[in-house]
Fold this sequence. Notes:
The chain is built from 6 helices and 18 strands. It is α+β, with helices and mostly antiparallel strands. The strands form 5 sheets. A 6-stranded antiparallel barrel has the order 1-12-17-14-13-18. It has a 4-stranded antiparallel β-sheet with strand order 2-11-9-4, with no helix packed on it.
Amino acid sequence: MKKSFLSILVLVAVLLAACGTTNTPTPMVEPEMEPASLSTVTAEGTLLPAPSVELAFAQGGVVSEILAQSGETLAAGDVIAQLIGLETVQAERAVAQLELASAKKALNDLQNAGGTELAQAAIDLKDAREEYDEAVDYLDYLKNEDKVPQTETRRFIIQNWKGYQYRIKTKHFKGPAPEDWIIEAENDLALDKARLDEAQRTYDRLKDGVDAEQLPVLEARLNAAYANVTAAEAAIELYELRAPFEGILLSLDLAIGESVAPTLPIAFLADTSLWTVETKDLAEIDVADVAIGDEATIQLDAFPGEEFQGTVTEIDPVGREYLGDMTYKVTLTLDEADPRFLWNMTATVNIE
């Protein structure tokens, strides 16, 4: 009996528990989104000062003088070294510059003297025309006048108690002009006509203020002088090695009396206040992820464990094959220079 009563109580408790329970839906848990990870592009490169340049003579020759030393700071245009033969081309330049100055002066004198010369040309033309008119009138007079005053002088010998003596007898008369007078007058008229024509041409040249014939001649002379000076200065550049910009002469492999070959680098000039890294193996599948302004971490083999910061400042749009892959040069500018930096140090760049 007790057993049956206990079983009933257990059954009632189970039913009550079942009736008091409600079906609550299980809430859905949204999966958490992981932040997107930044991609990193890695490439090898070379450390370079910017700007930097390898210097060489444009022509071969023998070194005559060295005017700079390695480690020296040079200004733009400073001469580093010279070749034998420079004195000759310098003399040629001096001659060309003298001719240029002379050509400038001649043209300037012509332009400034136009008014004075024109006035004198007008006077000369007037005088020449008067002389020509007089010659015309005189020739016409000789040809048409029947009573031209003339003088005839005769010289003869007489004998008297003193012996033989010369006597001169002069006769004055009027008549047609002798033929030789007319011929001489015609010759004089021809000369006066030539002088008149020359005076007229001179006046015509100057009537616009500048000698119309001399002006193009002097302008051509001046242009030729400019060309000769330019050629002489270009020749001097072949005998001199100059710094193209301000910087430090990092290296100079040269000695007086040494023969140098054209275009063979013998000096290295750089501005070491700014440094860059140029990549050499950035593949085309990676360059698409790189943009100007991207930040980068730079490691140098010479300083293991150290990192330097930089920024992408240039992307070469022209690809070049390197070790079988098409690669693109990317230039990164370092944020700060380091006195330990040396030209052509090997670098590894990680571009974010």
